Amino acid sequence: MAISAQTLMRSALGLAFIVLVAGSNAVVAQSMLTGEWKATADLNPDKIHLSFERRTERGGRSQMGSTYAYDDLQGLSREQARSGGAVKFSLVREAGRIDCEGVFQNGEGSGTFRFTGSQSFVSAMKSRGFDFEKNSFASDDGRDSENRLFAATTLNVTTALADDLLSADFGKLDVEDLFKAAIFKVDSKFMREMKASGFPNLGMEELVKARIFKIDAGFVSEVARMGFDKEPFESLVKMRIFKVTPEFINEARGEGLTNLSVEDLVKMRIFKIDGEFIRQARAEGVPLEVEKLVQKRIGVWGK
Length: 303
Hints:
Elements: H1 5-16, E1 32-41, E2 47-55, E3 61-69, E4 73-74, H2 78-83, E5 85-93, E6 96-105, E7 108-117, H3 119-126, H4 144-155, H5 159-167, H6 175-184, H7 188-196, H8 204-212, H9 217-225, H10 233-241, H11 246-254, H12 262-270, H13 275-283, H14 290-297
Antiparallel strand pairs: 1-2, 1-7, 2-3, 4-5, 5-6, 6-7
């Protein structure tokens, strides 16, 4: 059986970033994180993939990486990355700055980094209801505030993003929601479009799913034209996962299956029941019913 939409969403989140989100009362401006960085020049000449890794006090690892434009990295150019040699560069964001030293050779780089968080960013976020110093029991090293700020820096979480999300009346949001919004490009415009398309009460989890599975106002309209204009949001997710397209629906209806639900269509996709299979089954006397066609597919019809 196919994996669930929830599992797919969690997998996508994990592949995008390993974000450490917890809290402590550390004085962020006076403490730093250190670790190692690695970089690979991207196929896009204006981009470079940069990852950061550090050890925690309990022997674990914190690693996150992304592709950045060279313009985001102060002190590093494409020519330096390609030609090689010693480098010093910085990723400077509202949440803090990551200062890097190391060496490049043939488009591959490595070295050490030092991260310094911004206390003014912490204060600005707290005034908006996002507490980067909130206590949690999920810590692996007791440096939770810095971990959050470090994630915010690599993801470029900003007060402007917080203000934008708050303006759309998403409901109660936390720091982790900011990370999700930054990773999956969820903003107030997208939220308003989904509200206007008939889904006024989606939370951040559903909006992330919408981004992962490419569900937008245009797809909602397309689903309505297929004859499914009052389906719940999860039905749209299933349609995307199992590739229930207008072409597939028209093919099934053209073979005589005219009263199909989304669940029927999903089941047909799972068991690979298409127009050709329907015609063959009908020639063998199988009734035009989804359950009977499934039984035929798995070899139990007529037994």
